[in-house]
Amino acid sequence: MTSFDTVIDLAMATIQDYKLNNLYDASQDDFATITNAFLIRGIPEFTNCKHSLAYDTAQNTFLADLTPLEISILADLWVYEWMSWHVNNVTQFQGKMSPSDFKHYSEAENLKQKSEYLDRIREKFNQKMVDYSLQTIDWDALGNL
To answer: 12: number of CA atoms within 13 Å, CB side?
Structure first.
């Protein structure tokens, strides 16, 4: 069995989020609830996984032993869901301006940059899933058709 923590730890190695760090310090249970939700939201996107992605929410584990590549793809999907959470943050759509805003991107530009980053993440995990599929094809069997 593969723990959710294995996937989430790999995903967290690629991002820095002070909100999640503060949540972890304040309540590890709340942290697990939020981070597990990102993972669970991403699981249906991994449609070509050769192992079952069935999971036990009581134990926070997948019922199968996943390969390092499968774990990596799930970590990318977790990052995608995390970034979607940031892009869909309602405060990004509020039109507030203060003097300090002139030193930063406008809200619209910030949202545009986040959306473009989200697209790059999607391209990355989609390519990784294609590569994964190509690795699992029985090429010898195809040659015998």
So the answer is: 19
CA distance to 5, 53, 59, 131, 143, per residue, from 67 (Å): 15, 12, 19, 14, 27
Cα distance between residue 29 and residue 97, in whole Å: 36
CB 132 within 8 A of CB 70: yes
Distance of alpha carbon 132 from alpha carbon 120, whole angstroms:
18
- Alpha-carbon distance of 20 to 11, in angstroms, equals 12
pLDDT score at 76: 94
pLDDT digits (tens, 9 = 90+) for 90-116: 555 455 555 555 455 566 677 777 778
CA 85 – CA 121 distance, rounded (Å): 13
What is the DSSP-derived secondary structure letter of residue 41? H
User: Sheet of 55-56: strands edge to edge?
Assistant: 2-3, 61-62, 55-56
Residue 46 near residue 73 (C-beta atoms within 8 A): yes
Instruction: Please name the residue that has the structure tokens 């999971």.
Output: 55
Give the strand pairing for 55-56 and 2-3: unpaired
- Per-residue model confidence (pLDDT) at position 21: 87
20: left (phi over 0), alpha (psi -120 to 50) or beta: alpha
